[in-house]
Amino acid sequence: MMKTTPEHNERIRTMKFFSVYPHYVSKVEKKGRTKEELHQVITWLTGFDDAKIEEMIDRKATFEAFFKEANLNPNAELIKGVICGYRIEEIENELTKQCRYLDKLVDELAKGKKMEKILRSN
């Protein structure tokens, strides 16, 4: 299993969703994708609708709170590969793994993958 350090996991736990969200938006928009598509990806992973995503931003929720309230898609475990130097399927810390799921989906969106591939719907 890929070991993340306790310090790394703590940094992920306390990181604020609202502070990372604008980077997600600019990353996908720079590559010709839309905020709506980003929300579609976030909704698929978390079960959050647009109002809930906005609430998380307004509340300045940490990633810990964000994923605690999420209803993670059962197909999330199909998200594999390397993101931020870590092989997702080998990350032991559950919250860190969930954050990397989101990072990977945003990355795939920005790279122009088809939505049905991103959403693991064959």
Automatic annotation (TrEMBL):
InterPro entries: SP1917_dom_sf (IPR023204), UCP033199 (IPR014580). It comes from the Bacteria. This is DUF2200 domain-containing protein. It comes from Jejuia pallidilutea.
